[in-house]
UniProtKB/TrEMBL annotation:
One of its GO terms (biological process) is negative regulation of apoptotic process. It comes from Cyprinus carpio carpio. This is non-specific serine/threonine protein kinase. Residues 93-348 form the Protein kinase domain. The lineage of its organism: Eukaryota, Metazoa, Chordata, Craniata, Vertebrata. GO terms for molecular function: ATP binding; protein serine/threonine kinase activity. GO terms for cellular component: cytoplasm. Pfam families: Pkinase (PF00069). Its EC number is 2.7.11.1.
Amino acid sequence: MGMLPVQSVPKIDGDIACAVSTKVDGDIACAVSTKVDKGIDSAGHAKKYKGIASAGRPKVDGGVASAVCTQVDGITNSVPAGELDKDHICCRYKFGGRLGEGGFGSVRKGIRLKDGLKVAVKYVRKTKRTTYITTAFHPKPLPLEIALAVMVNREPNCQCIIKLLDWQDDPDHYLIVMERLVPSMDMRTFLKCSGGILREQTAQYIMWQIIYAANFCCNRGIFHRDIKLANLIVNPTTLEIKLIDFGCGDLMKDSGYSTYSGTKPYFPPEYHDRGRYHAKPATVFSLGVLLFGMLHGRFPTAKDLHCLGNNRSVFAVSKECILFLWACLQRHPERRILLEQMLYDDCTC
């Protein structure tokens, strides 16, 4: 892809009518860092993160839980007086329209009542498969998604990862309150608005931020496991990226993993070949799939992978980009580029 200073934001193709900044603002501070692990605490450090409000909130009873469910999923804007504990999360936010939904529950717009801050509120129904873990920063077991979000948001945090503002763990569900970028859209929508593909320079700038976020997660002891277009929020004006949704994540394990909770097109080949995979090589493969999709508007096929290694002239991207994709999408994990090295490759720096 050639050499691109990370502080310059490329102009966007397609029908996105927005003024693109030529300088990265303060909110993308981590995108101009030259080291991934500088100042990053270890995963088990028992440091309190000041920006997360609900770590010590008590659980509420079943009747209150039902009221919360009604409020979040029914888009009511007020909580009946006397039904909720004054410390409950629903007393601090006003919930609005739906931003997205899935098998887990839904994500809605919200407003923090004390200052009018725009937020996103994720409501997740608990099931028999909901996993709890105990961590150094909280005395009681927490749903895995909440625990991972708190771990990755400990200071110093990463501006390329969505900021956790608040959370509540109730008997039959949990709520996660996150920052909400305005303007913003997910990467799937951004691609559609850009004509289905991105210019190489634009993809390069976006990928650097995603790779930084992936490294940051691993350095915090977290395997995101589902880095894909739908889990990336982009500000179309600045190209600021935020990685979201730790619902498929896990703690880093030296022994690797034998089950996969992410999205099938991003699965690493070794999951099928060997029945086991490891966090960093699997992340590298998924990032290669992601970059290929941004540049070509589709997932790579077996023929594409063959051409990357043997007939590179069929791809309308630079030699550096082709070599980078080939290094990410190697079938054997031992042959892939290291996750840490991706930040300094000619294709991304």
